[in-house]
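S2.1 Query sequence (ATPase phospholipid transporting 9B)
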Amino acid sequence: MPLMMSEEGFENDESDYHTLPRARVKQRQRGLGWLLMGGWKILCGSCCDCLARTCRRTKELKARTVWLGHPEKCEEKYPKNAIKNQKYNFFTFVPGVLYQQFKFFLNLYFLVVACSQFVPALKIGYLYTYWAPLGFVMAVTMVREAVDEVRRYQRDKEMNSQLYSKLTVRGKVQVKSSDIQVGDLIIVEKNQRIPADMIFLRTSEKTGSCFIRTDQLDGETDWKLKVAVVCTQRLPALGDLFSINAYVYAQKPQLDIHSFEGNFTREDGDPQIHESLSIDHTLWASTIVASGTVIGVVIYTGKETRSVLNTSSPKNKVNSFYLKIFATTTLFCVNLFVG
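Output structure tokens follow.
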């Protein structure tokens, strides 16, 4: 049976057809308004997040088994124990500084105002009254950021080049902080910074414990008591650490500096020796040995250490000087134009 269409139906279809372009125009207007009223921030943020995920694949953190003095037995490749606090490199410095400055609404607003002066209908005063302060302040900002980057580089280089004693089968050898690996046995002297996250194995103190200062880790000047693993502390000599077959099972890297879960196991004994490990057996990177000499096995290095995991990326401050100069110039130009 054929379908019958009434004239009224044709009229409604035709009316809808004529109103379709108007609806599209309204959608465009709403889209433009959303973009100007803050949608650009969401759009830029989404693009940056997508680009970051594409360029930087985050490795999943896992628990690990670390054999004493045998980094070659590690099942996975762990990050290099190098400190890097730089925010930029040679190629990202200029775009990075510009992004950090203009990601704030007020800064971006002043940039848009300056750009609008190229439109004759919106022009107020001379272009240099807008672009000269903007260029001056951005130049000052870049110089300041460049100086800060050089200082960060120098500090990192000094920290990474510090020498430590590493215990090997042939005895002690000197190694740079940046060359320390998971599984290494590192000796740290009194008043020396701990270069990586370690499990406390032995100390020169007869009590089997030592104090460390945590001011470089949590910002508070505090001394904490740490206890060595009983099995390794009771060994007759330091070199006996290579005469036993032992490993540490450590949980995956965590943010919490006040907790730790792990186990110490010595397999060559009969029966095997098992010790539960807690926060009292840990020596976190960036803390300072306050008493005696300690030796520990490295379990976390570089960006997996507690100190790095709890350090947020340095952020640029909003340039209030820039805001004051540009606001003052804008008001002066407006008053001049009105007057």
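The chain has two domains: 88-159+313-338, 164-309. The CA atoms of residues 39 and 288 lie 48 Å apart.
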